[in-house]
Write a structure and sequence with these properties.
- The chain has 10 helices and 2 strands; from the N terminus they run H-H-H-H-H-H-H-E-H-H-E-H.
- The chain is mainly alpha-helical.
- It has a single domain (about 10-275), classed as Rhopdopsin 7-helix transmembrane proteins (Up-down Bundle), CATH 1.20.1070.
- Pfam families: RTA1.
- Keywords: Membrane, Transmembrane, Transmembrane helix.
């Protein structure tokens, strides 16, 4: 049950979190995500990488804002701050999946492979998974918004849980397509000065989607166990299975930067078909 809106006092955080948010951990988290945001923004811009990669920087910004609100909640928590923090930290990582979906679509497009299988067409992979992620995002956002109402709290929790569960299904489907593209030699392309671009790019996608899957399983378990369940009321679990996991994803995106394994905005590409002609 959602806590009463009329509880006051410095310890009000206990009514929402069931603990006082740890200030040092929240500050460290904010700094880490702020650094990732600045770094990725500059790298994408200076390297003239594909514009869709700015989603990474945007996600980092949303995480930074979420932890800024969490810091504020350490001093005083009300329903608005709690819901705002929850929405920023719950929804922001969904955008990372969009980057992975788009990247696999780009591999298919750059390879120039023609297929009759609709689920392997560039347009389907890009737009189906994009739409599915937005749908799951909308369900989670709507569910989170409904939780601001005492009467609709349980309904909102169920809707959020459905959105998270659907996302796990979409992740699994995406994983199958990624494995197929990885193992099929015809899905090959060439980027200047980047040998084995596809292999390194796929590695980045594998690691990050596994991390996102772990985080989503944690969130499903959290909402399934309820607002006052063991998982939702354990702060270390949040920092291990959400904060640390998403930060690890950003670290992978930074080290194995997607932009260096794809053509720049003004760079010509060579597909497998082009290479065979030479």
């Amino acid at each position: 049950m959602i806590p009463s809106l009329y509880n006051t006092g410095a310890s009000q955080a206990l009514f929402f979190f069931h603990y006082i948010p740890n200030l040092p951990l929240a500050i460290v988290s904010l700094c880490v995500y702020a650094i990732f945001t600045i770094y990725l923004t500059l790298r994408i811009s200076l390297s003239k990488s594909a514009n869709y990669l700015y989603i990474l920087a945007f996600t980092g910004l949303m995480e930074t804002i979420g932890y800024a609100i969490r810091i504020a909640c350490h001093y005083f928590t009300d329903l608005g701050r709690y819901i705002g923090m929850t929405l920023f930290l719950l929804l922001a990582p969904n955008a990372l999946a969009l980057v992975n979906y788009k990247t696999v679509g780009e591999i298919i497009r750059l390879s120039g492979v023609q297929t009759n299988r609709f689920y392997l067409k560039h347009s389907f992979v890009t737009w189906f998974f994009f739409a599915s992620d937005i749908f799951a995002f909308a369900l989670q956002g709507a569910g989170g918004g409904m939780q601001t109402s005492t009467d609709l709290y349980q309904t909102g929790r169920v809707i959020t849980l459905i959105g998270l569960a659907l996302q796990l299904v979409f992740f699994a489907c995406y994983g199958c397509i990624t494995i197929y593209v990885h193992r099929s030699p015809e899905y090959q392309y060439h980027v200047a000065h980047q040998p084995n671009a596809k292999r390194r790019l796929i590695f980045c996608l594998y690691v990050t989607i596994i991390l996102l899957y772990i985080r989503s399983i944690y969130r499903v378990a959290e909402y399934a166990s309820g607002y006052d369940g063991v998982i939702a009321t354990t702060e270390w679990a949040f920092y291990v299975f959400d904060t640390l996991v998403i930060a690890a994803s950003f670290a992978v995106y930074s080290v194995f930067f997607i932009g260096q394994y794809l053509p720049k905005r003004d760079q010509a590409i060579e597909s497998r078909t082009d290479l065979e002609k030479e």
